[in-house]
Structures
1.
Amino acid sequence: MTTVKVATPKAAARAPAKEVIKDASMLKQKEMMAAHYDRLTSAPETGAKVAATFVPGNLNELVMCFDLLNNLPEVNAIQNGLRRVSGSYVLEAEKIGHSEDVCTYVKSDIGMMAKGNIAPNGKKFPNPDVLLLSYTGCFTFMKWFELLREQYKCETIMLHTPYMGDGKITKGMIDYMVKQLREEVIPTLERVSGVKFDIDRLRENLKRSSKAEDDLVRVLQSAKAKPSPIDAYFGGIYYIGPIFGAFRGTQDAIDYYRFLREEVEDRLAKGQGPVTPDGDMGKEKYRLVVEGPPNYTSFRQFWKMFYDEGAVVVASSYTKVGGVYDFGFRHDPSKPLETLAEYCLGVYTNRSLPMRIDMLVNYINEYEADGLLINSIKSCNSFSAGQLLMMREVEKRTGKPAAFVESDLVDPRYFSAANIKNRLESYFQMIDQKRSGANAAA
Amino acid sequence: MKTFVGIDLGSTTTKAVLLDEDRNPIGHGITNSRSNYATAARVASQEARVDGQFTLFRRALGDANGVIELDSFLGSLERAFRLEQFLEQLDDLEQTCIGQIQGERFAKVGSGVKSSLGEVFQRLRKEAPELYAPGAKRKSDFFRDIAGSRYHNHAEEVAREAGLPYDLLLNVYDKSIIEVENRPPAGELSEKFRRALGRVLQSEPSVKSAAADIQKMIEKALAVELEETYLVGTGYGRVTLPFSKEHIRSEILCHGLGAHLMYPKTRTVLDIGGQDTKGIQIDTAGIVENFQMNDRCAAGCGRYLGYIADEMNMGLHELGPMAMQSDKPARINSTCTVFAGAELRDRLSLGEKREDILAGLHRAIILRAISIISRSGGITNEFTFTGGVAKNEAAVRELRKVIKENYGDVVININPDSIYTGALGAAEFARRAHFGQADGSEQ
Amino acid sequence: MTIAAGIDIGTSTIKATLFKVENGEETWLSRYIMRIRQRDPLELARVAYDAVLADANMRPEDVDYVATTGEGESVPFHTGHFYSMTTHARGAIYLNPDSRAALDIGALHGRAILIDERGKVLSYKMTSQCASGSGQFLENIARYLGIAQEEIGSLSCQGETPEVVSSICAVLAETDVINMVSRGISTPNILKGIHLSMAARLTKLLKSIGAREGAVMVTGGLALDSGLIAAIEEDLSHIKDMKIAVRSHDDSIYAGAIGAALWGAFRFEKLAAANRVSRAA
Amino acid sequence: MATSLNPQATADIVARANALFEDLSFGTARAWKEAVPGRKVVGYMPIYVPRELIHAADMLPLGIVGGGDQLEVIHGDAYYQSYICRIPRSTIELGVSGRLDFVDGMLFPSICDVIRNLSGMWKLMFPKVYSRYFDVPQNYRDDIGGNFYINELAELRHDLGELRGKPITDDELRSSIAVYNDNRRLIRELYALRAERPWQAPAAEVYLMVRAGLLLPVEEHSALLRHYLAAARAEERPMRDNCRVVLTGMFCEQPPLNLIKSLELSGCYVVDDDLLLVTRWLTGDVEIEGDPLRNLSSAFLHHSESTAAKYEPNQKEKGQHLVRAVKRTAAEGVIFAAPSFCDPALLERPMLQHVLKEAGIPYIAFKYAENSGQMQPIREQAGTFADSIKLWSAA
Ligand SMILES: Nc1ncnc2c1ncn2[C@@H]1O[C@H](COP(=O)(O)OP(=O)(O)O)[C@@H](O)[C@H]1O
Ligand SMILES: Nc1ncnc2c1ncn2[C@@H]1O[C@H](COP(=O)(O)OP(=O)(O)O)[C@@H](O)[C@H]1O
Ligand code: SF4
Ligand code: SF4
Ligand code: SF4
């Protein structure tokens, strides 16, 4: 990946087809990520301690209070997917006894460990000093860290987030979580890190989070414009990287999101569409809302199937897996532990199915989309179980057509390009036909 | 005359439909999809032309109706034509087989193979007219299948008589058939029509008296050129076709439109093809509103029946009728195409009846299809069943049952030409494209 | 002296053997193999049994133990039944005493079996419920490509730039292959591609049973497919921590029947020692 | 009870249980409901719900564990992709086909994402039915997880009271706890009998007897269990040369009965299992005196079974429950049988296997679905396992 040539948006139009086009914000992000991986892999030398934890339920502000580095196995799995090594990792995990049926995120991680635990920068990942099992919206996370615990034999802290089964956050839930934070999570982190907890430091971190969150929301909501200056799924995945990962609560994140916002606002002012790996996208022909994670092993191929047809994603649920901010929630420094609890509870997949449907319907209406596309992920029961009903309900309520494709996050065996392309093409042609039918009728 | 061609390149069969300017289908052609899609497309469209010729004959001979029994005459003519075609391909196959055995693998077995082959082909040729006798039932419509199953029978006998391993002769066939299939069909159609006509005139005294008139009318029809004005391709293989984007439509749209043309009141379409199953909802203009397809597992598609037929050494055409004899379908749980064979054997060995097992397998396919339709939004009146499996009466019976149980009284349309639905839709898209509605909508 | 017969009813073929065991010395008296096409396998079991007897010039009363394996649980004249993996393990040891794993690849299933020097099954793993990558599939493809079963191996070995078969589903893979033909991929490269993808599955099985070193004996019908064997070797060579020598044997397809007969003899002697002899019917 | 003097033949009792099991329309529960106007039925899915609460509200707790291999799934597949286990689709089928139309409430316990999401689907598809996702804590301290759990219980208690039209009193709860304590004791007895003499209580029979408890009023079920225990002890049955195994991984989607039978036929006596865990989830009696919710919570936190759906805070304890089960029942091996695509069971499996390996306990593993039709591969694996234990055991 480091060898690809990179061009600024201006140069995009002139760039020969083979080059991958990246805008400046992406470059900045790449630097941030690279720096983070370097911090992690040099931990043995610097003596920094490492906490492994998950994206949904990521307590980065808290982790930073203990001078711990945050290593997120999901992000590593994504990197491995993009770098096309996850396939062999998954296979490795299956060879050492994991079932073909289970989540490939876990298997990619386990396989990576079995094959030497090499980070994207080519150096070895440090072993975690603590597994912070703060997870939300998926049971698999729990098994995942039990498996890692077996391997690393290190301290493991459980923070259990109840599910929003009835669509509301109750006081009982918040109390339960705050109590876990106060009496289990924080004391253990203090012990592992040797750093005393300072609630003011947490407040500072939270304040920084909410600033970046504001800008992120502005960026994502820019897609309401026509044409949309961003792709809120394929592009969106880059945008959420820092804030869902190890940067929420840092100055870096504030800088990045301000920079990103300006870039997007500039495109917006100029009436430009999104930047794709092949340069500026052509005319915006279809506006879609997407539910479900992407496929990382054939990410660009997948994306190309959209932008080649002039389809832009204007809103997606995947960009809410590490926190839902567009309905007003911000990390609130005035109630630091409660706000962390509330954040965990509100993550997309921790919302009940009816809530998820409401969100999608709302997106279709507010972003004036032509329809819903579901990319159903074989790995992920948390997302996928129930998507077929979601599809029906959204169609029923919006009157807009939906389409369904299937793939996997990081297992290349489950990406059938021909199959997906066939469905997408049919879907786009169907939207066309409907439109012209509607015109003819009018 | 102007014709509009729709080609549906399916995973198992390739279909072509010829429309005239007034949207009348004048010809249908089908062939099995083989490794060479371009050839398959060519064969199918040639078959459609052949069929179109018959339509033209019918039109031309319309006046002579009464003098001759038109239907029976055209039937004879068609059979004679098929026989001509069959014999021609048989010759090709024989030459290819002989070519094969020059290779070293067969050298040690020596000339025995060659003479045995000669014998097999002699028997094949001898019985060929029976295959095309009036009322004869053929196992399939395709040369590969017809010639194959007969070849197997004769080869087994001949091999036994000559003391040769049967597998050897089988292998020669397997090696050759793929080549023969992939050879573009040999040229001049008109000549074949003339030869066929000769055969009919000779063998059927009833038309002798009108022979001269008939010949004249046929010649006139043969003189009409079926111009390929516009062509649209669709189906599984469409991406590999040398068509440009304007000439390609998604098979979903084509099936929707095709079903609409056949039955304008259709709202729900089910298509079960060789390796995919689609549930499609269309509006009053034939525009697709929603669709669902099977996922990446091909369980429960048409190919499933193919496997079963192979497994039981039966023709595809024979499965349905056998399953119809059951009134107590077995409950089959594995719809995995390949495992179905194993389950079949399992159950046979447990003493279950073939008919019941087969009926159960048909039901299993239908249940899967129904769940796909259900994903796409259920069944709304009227319902049209398309694709190759719609030809299977047992599948149709189960489908009717399940629909009745779950959706009540729904009009169910099944067209004898249901397998051509996609191609018909494509042909209509071609016609619309020619008349300037690029997006395919009707005015 | 003990005379024992082993009858292995598979999904596609039926195999029978007759053995004499005397003072620990095992003598293979006769064998029989036949494809199950249309006939009832249980009927064929009788045919096969009669054939091995006739071939060895014996009568049913000479036989001490008739052991079935595979799908032979309901053969009416058996003395006892052993399950396939038990018998393949024993067969592998008979064919090559150094075997520490058996890889049984038959028409529908693949199984990896970890064994010790006595033929005891230590652990095993089977391919899943989905039929992709089975012998049956290979057979269909071969027929489609117009090649005889015996040719598959040598053709595959000529493949230099194998084409990867991406579909997991056997049915869709068939279409993949048809597509390859149309793209002009040569038969050897197609076959090699299929073999490699099958091999990857099989080595995965081997790895997951913990086979790390020693010889693995390939048993079952596909042991005769040299292309598959080569592909397995190739796949294994990419795996650092597996130092396994892949072995095959001309009689590999009989492994189950051999194992059944030998276990039968073993059991008979054990029972005889315990005075619980029951002669074969 | 006097009837125990005159035990029915086991066959009759089993036939009754089998009839209950095969009735996909829940006739018995329907009849119970119709017998008295105003009666209500509350369904629940695996793994555990506090049935005492439902019972205390005078309602019938009805265990719904999928549709098995006899239910024809026509609509259910429309809601689930092929890579999701079977139980939710057959449960939806039961709902859509009207087989559950008499059920007044549904509880979806916290077991995995599939059932969790099903709870939301149920709300959308059957809006008139009371339905609730019943969450449980993953923290086992009384003052943290306990408080949360009591809160959950109190909410459920309140809702069920509303459904009945009258709040549930503490005394009602106490007497329900007592009734269920009795039932749990009988089931423990049944399992002990089978562990001791598995040929006297074949696995398929034990399964049917326990399964009946999901469908019958608890008092009736306890009586049935008493009959069966007496009859099974009295009847002489031949002992086979089988090995003894513990079954694990079947805590949610249930295997077809044929599968359980096949295991015994191919040479394995089942001496312990984790089928239908709700009936054995609490491992001892629940305290009756005092605050009933606190007592239920305490039993849940400190005396409940280990399964994949539960976090094990102590690494050293991971999987030890299985080792203990093997020791307790003198089993010779463990069979891991998990539903296809069951993330909890399948992700847990390698960890448990490591523990067994460490303890020198042999094991095998396979997958099934509630509608698996082909028993051949399963027989083969179980048979090989039995073969190897038999051929190589000391004898
Ligand atoms: N005459 C027939 N009787 C029964 N089944 C048939 C018949 N003709 C075709 N089929 C079935 O139809 C399937 C092919 O359907 P088709 O719609 O042509 O598929 P595709 O478009 O994928 O090639 C075959 O697999 C076969 O099962
Ligand atoms: N020479 C060969 N080369 C490749 N495959 C072979 C050969 N001989 C037999 N086979 C394959 O072996 C399989 C049968 O193996 P076998 O172990 O007997 O299976 P089963 O026990 O399931 O019947 C068939 O699928 C057949 O295609
Ligand atoms: S199941 Fe889904 S949410 Fe859970 S770890 Fe896997 S991919 Fe992530
Ligand atoms: S189950 Fe059968 S049909 Fe489905 S993917 Fe596997 S081989 Fe293909
Ligand atoms: S079988 Fe497993 S995955 Fe399916 S619902 Fe039950 S626990 Fe969840």
2.
Amino acid sequence: MSNAVEANVLPFPHLLEGADSGPATETLRMVRIVEAMIFASREPVAEKAIAARLPEGTDIGELLADVQMAYANRGVNLVRVGDAWAFRTADDLAFLLQKEAVETRRLSKAALEVMAIIAYHQPVTRAEIEEIRGVVTSKGTLDVLMETAWVRMRGRRKTPGRPVTYGTTPDFLDHFGLEQVRDLPGLDELKGAGLLQSQVPANFAVPMPNDDDDLQDDEDPFTLDDVEELGLLTPGGAGDE
Amino acid sequence: MSNAVEANVLPFPHLLEGADSGPATETLRMVRIVEAMIFASREPVAEKAIAARLPEGTDIGELLADVQMAYANRGVNLVRVGDAWAFRTADDLAFLLQKEAVETRRLSKAALEVMAIIAYHQPVTRAEIEEIRGVVTSKGTLDVLMETAWVRMRGRRKTPGRPVTYGTTPDFLDHFGLEQVRDLPGLDELKGAGLLQSQVPANFAVPMPNDDDDLQDDEDPFTLDDVEELGLLTPGGAGDE
Amino acid sequence: MNNPTNPSADQETGDLWESPTPVDRTLSDPDFTVDVDGFEGPLDLLLAMARTQKVDLSKISILALAMQYLKFVEQARKLRLELAADYLVMAAWLAYLKSRLLLPAPEGDPEPSGEELANQLAFRLQRLEAMREAAVHLMNRNRLGRDVFSRGDPEPVVIDRKQHFSANLFDLLTAYASQRQRQSVSSVTIARREVWSLSDAREILTRLMGKLSDWTPLDVFLAEYMVDPEERPGVIASSFAASLELVREGALEIRQSDSFAPLYMRQINQNPVPAAQG
């Protein structure tokens, strides 16, 4: 057997071969448990649930990081989804697996917009969503988003009328391959540009159209940089006329 | 990174580290494909289907044997199912796929009534229970009672339709602290306890319960067919009659 | 999408999922002359207009944008198109913005300056645009079920449900007693009426006929079978039917003097014919 293993591209570590040394065997045992638990499930498995199966005091974070690294170059990767972990196929292998792809209904532009607003501004109320979009949001749009299980009601804002606040779900993270909400694409840049605020940021300015000289004066390099980073330049646009 | 990998119980092979050597990279590529395909598939993947995704002339048998060996000591194993392959939790970790959930449930009023009727009137058929209660008894109620292990199917009544007769189990006596089922209070005792009003119709009778294992004259034992039909082959159950 | 004739209605009804053939609004309606269909409110319209002006939102002329929008609303009115309230509110606001931008603010004016108002609008446009971009970025990520896949054939956790049922003897007895009690009160047992079958009646009649010496009323004849008044109608009906059969066979004679008068019967050929009774 050891010959075959040596020849294998994915050999087991030698630690396992003469596996009598206590700590290594113990770690292997734990790794196997972690693998089995997460592998068996389609849904991400809560870190707590894994910890419950391991000896008390196990550094589960380190253990999971190790397993994650072991699978980093494999066909299947260990990914973190919020407080949970899941095995997912490596994203470069999507072409292989089209057969498994589930045809999902595509969300309307309006629904996508509301979803993005909820993701980036959460917790956010319906009134705030409407303020951002400048249009009344139909109840149906929120229902559809809730139906996707990407959006949930979080609670109520402590303001008069106690409006419901919306946010994203772990399913949302799972679906879009995000470890946590903080990993939303462009989040830092949007924050830096003040575009996630409800008020115009203090340093926010647009050039006055009737005053080209002012345009120069009003050019806030910080704002301009941010806008470029945000990808606000639509494809094909030179933007510097 | 190589340090971390070295420290890992499940390091990647050094082949991958300086992965520029043609054959090894190519093999890894194929291994990743095999892993991802089998992982994502809803059913075991036919060897042919895998081969279709690999370069022509690949020794798929050897490749799969290698992957299988790579996973041999893992928490998840690659197993052959006929001409197809699937990942399965390692046998010794099957316990991870079991969760014990102890929940205390209160019996519904309907279930209590049926339970009581079975206790007093056993052996009793469902039709008889319904006649006594004056309402249709749902299958679910009897199922729940069977689940309590306080009620059992005794046999079949020797009447047209051969209805199943129900009776109580020793567990029933245990749970309700009865030495024998005859200890259930009779009419006078029920009256005395204020459970029955003193004015009951003249023909009102409380039967003397009898949970004798021996079938009564009008009862037939279950046949082998019954055992299958009624799903009586519960662990430690009466399957050997 | 925005129904101009019904400004108070939801602005998004019926289009929650992307239509299979999305229409490029700017192509179908390059000048935004009259049609607001396909726009999701005034901000969306303004964004589309801004794009015709400049691609870089940070460099658009807010004043030009405001004028373009006002012109659009004017045209719509000329054509007597009803615009949703949102569009008119925006128009009013933009008219105000325009005046603030063009006219110098009086000394000590507490109102926000034109510049501040313009910033406010530009901010809202950029924020909305940013959210749209974000949505596109999100949707272009490697998505679960499309690019990345979960375990296709998961091995479910078998929940070994250890149900513990709670019930005590008192519950049990209470349930039993109360339901028996309930039933004993509510259920009225209708005793089965004794009905003689025709053959039963005939057999009894034949047996009794030997005792008939003379004309005998049927109810006397059957007296011993009619102790229970409830049985009476059934017994009479059955035996009458059976007696008719015996008459047909020539074994019995029957006579009745009037409707509902007593029925008399006697055996034939047993005794000499007696005098008819009055």
3.
Amino acid sequence: MNAAPREFRSEELLADVIARLIGDVRHVAVGNASPIPATAALLARERGHGRPYVSLLQSRKHNFFTDGARELFDCAGQGRIDVFFLSGGQIDGQGNVNLVSTGDYAHPKVRFPGSFGSAYLYYVVPKVILFRVEHSRRTLVPQVDFISAPGTSSPEVYRPGGPIALVTNRCLFSFAAGRFTLASVHPGHTVAEVIEHTGFEFERPETVPETPAPSPKTLKLLRETVAPQLAEVYPQFAAQVFGISVPSPERGRVRVGVAWRY
Amino acid sequence: MNAAPREFRSEELLADVIARLIGDVRHVAVGNASPIPATAALLARERGHGRPYVSLLQSRKHNFFTDGARELFDCAGQGRIDVFFLSGGQIDGQGNVNLVSTGDYAHPKVRFPGSFGSAYLYYVVPKVILFRVEHSRRTLVPQVDFISAPGTSSPEVYRPGGPIALVTNRCLFSFAAGRFTLASVHPGHTVAEVIEHTGFEFERPETVPETPAPSPKTLKLLRETVAPQLAEVYPQFAAQVFGISVPSPERGRVRVGVAWRY
Amino acid sequence: MSAPLQSLDDALTLITDGCLLVVPREVSGVPMAATRALIRRGVKRLHLVALPTSSLQADLLIGAGCVETLETSAVSLGEFGPAPRFTAAITSGAIKMKDATCPALHAALQAAEKGVPFMPLRGLIGSDVLAYRDDWKVIDSPFGNSDPIVLLPAIRPDVALIHAPMADRFGNIWIGRQRELATMAHAAVRAVATVEKIHDGNLLDDPVLAAGTLPGFYVESIAVAERGAWPLGLPDHYGVDAEHLAEYARMAATAEGFAEYLERYVYERRAA
Amino acid sequence: MSAPLQSLDDALTLITDGCLLVVPREVSGVPMAATRALIRRGVKRLHLVALPTSSLQADLLIGAGCVETLETSAVSLGEFGPAPRFTAAITSGAIKMKDATCPALHAALQAAEKGVPFMPLRGLIGSDVLAYRDDWKVIDSPFGNSDPIVLLPAIRPDVALIHAPMADRFGNIWIGRQRELATMAHAAVRAVATVEKIHDGNLLDDPVLAAGTLPGFYVESIAVAERGAWPLGLPDHYGVDAEHLAEYARMAATAEGFAEYLERYVYERRAA
């Protein structure tokens, strides 16, 4: 339709990619310090005219839980959470995620915060979307040093959930049958670059499509409708990316993905 | 001290007996439709100057639970309930209680309401006081037809709790090592009468003492201090026994032990 | 999520013949108006779980022939005597009874709430409650003394049916201290509620009200039923109608009297 | 029960060296004033359970040498980066770490709440979280498909330490939606709380407040600590002090900077 280059930020592209991955589901939950997945979930809700239900766990407004900190996990165990997001200090080609440490567990070289709910949610949430902005051989490795949660399980293990995709700053991988497949490369990036910076092996079709840029309609939705909602939870992010500033007495500054800097 | 006959009602005697059994503990819980145990618990609290803590499960005022209907059982499982009361359509000489049915379970002759929490609380509450006003060969049997909860358990079974006594309209039995022992006979009743009306065998000392009548101090406490508190939960009982009438918009009439009439 | 507010009959359409239905104990806010509506509609073959006990509600449903299986710890009219239709149905073998004990039902619902296949429970060993439940298992605990412990399979009801003081137009329901109502809704596939009234605004917006609120996310349909627990009570709102319960106990003592009760108080909707 | 209201230091005497202490996650109302008081007193060898994660609180206690064993799912300063003293203690081997996952800690506390020796949990199988926990067991579920499932032993803390908006003179504490605070108090042998203020009257007398109240029966001691969660936030009351947390992250990046932080903000009581 429109071959002219459009102006958009990489955060907007990533949110658009993730919103498509979310698809038509009932309930998306977004953990802490995840402004881009939160943007994507709110975008999906706008497109779906109120569906899916979006829980931003860091928010008071977009968070219906009243049974304490366990309710998210109980809710997931009941099968009521369709989509969740996970990241990792390391992610490997089998979909294993490592949120604990590198090197020997008893004498780690680098310690990450810890596994959070991954060792449970990765198993029970049908669509887990892996999200790691930094796409490098340091983060995307052949084999994680510690399996916080495995990408797949043997058939006797109860596992209605698992990874469906991995989104980075360079590309989108889909995940099936225990392997990643390069699904699309983001505008401005190349397949060769993806191969160079990926520590694990992955499938790829002969021709790898380019990730579609966000449409003008999507950009308008993001900037005019989603951004103001986001500002309650991620004021700094909303200001940086969308130029939206809403004073929030309850929230401090948000730095994207900083927990994973090492 | 005082050899002159004193005027008291049998409910006052039973409450006094039970209050002594309660002893020095932290927390007494009283189930539904149990006005005499409730009277005893409130009497024990008056004597202990606020200790034990008394939970009347039928009350809003004397009931601190805020975690729903399960909190009583969780609380007992935590070891926070020291005394509880159970009754039974049948009670046998091994301390087994039957709250389910007589005859064959599949084709019962008489059906009682059901086991309630007995199959749990009898095991975990340290002092369970059995209370059955009707002392007859129909209620106190050699062997219950259905064991809602057993009087004792084999050593490998986790069982910090169990029965310590059985109080009836005729006497007080203590319970230890899987058997009842006649501890005292209430004024106006005899050992011969107890033997005649008890369906199970029990130990008894050569001389069986008479259950002490409530002291004037106890009667004063019961009538002036306990009865008004009781009226919130058991208005009919408080009116009948103590002549106290407090209008209560939330409560209907209470008929003592009527659930066990058959 | 838009408000699932409906008429009473429409709200109850989820409760179909053969449904595994969980209802609360007699003092937690029993949906009696909804129960009468279900009887009028003629629901059949319910697997009724009363958490953990019941009084008039189970007795009415049993007497009206709506129940195939009953799973609970006790049915009784309390101060008003035995539950006559329950007692008659058990002695005649008209319904299948799964006798339980209160904390076992709480634990089995919590298992479904937590998405686990079972929950352990102390007690029970050596009782006939356990002996007659072939769906309950005993294992040696792999911790501590390897002592035996009972495992109870999760109960995941098709529908949880509750009554509460109020709901808002977003489907949120204020349940207060009756937190077993939240567990029921979490454990069930779907929750259906009647409420005394509609609260203006969003219950989750006020932190004090939110603390006692079941989020609308779990709630499929809501109908307003004023005094919807009558003749039972609603905690902190109204007490039991003692005269009516005494009348019920008298009438339901015989099958004929019970039929007359249904005619007068259920089918003719006089009191609904 | 009389009111257990005490001074902060007196309220904390229950938390002795070697104590198994459970504390709440970073957004539930963290007793930071109490944490600073514990550091000033020099508590040692804590077995600290953070339900299910922690931020500044665990980092401070670890840095100050109060912790022997840490059991939690994650420690991080969130937007302010890694938790530097936690990270340093793990890489140097100064503390024993028991890595968990959030729902496992919730389940283990609920096991203690329910008086059962263990709770089952889905997930975990095939993870190194499970591989490194020799206190967790796997059995084949005796229900359904005999599939493997993890059993977690109950965690029964000696003390649960919480911070909440208010308490009354009867020891009741209003916790609102932070219901994990109730589970912590139920599971622990004793609960100790700091609160922002004292509520006149009895919290249990008002059904709306009662719905969010932890009964005083579980509470051993309470101290008033205004802005007692600072520099963390208290839900619906105040937010995090972002400048302070950024300053902490900078200072605690080195052992020397952390010592200076302690001197300035903990020992000198400037901000307590």
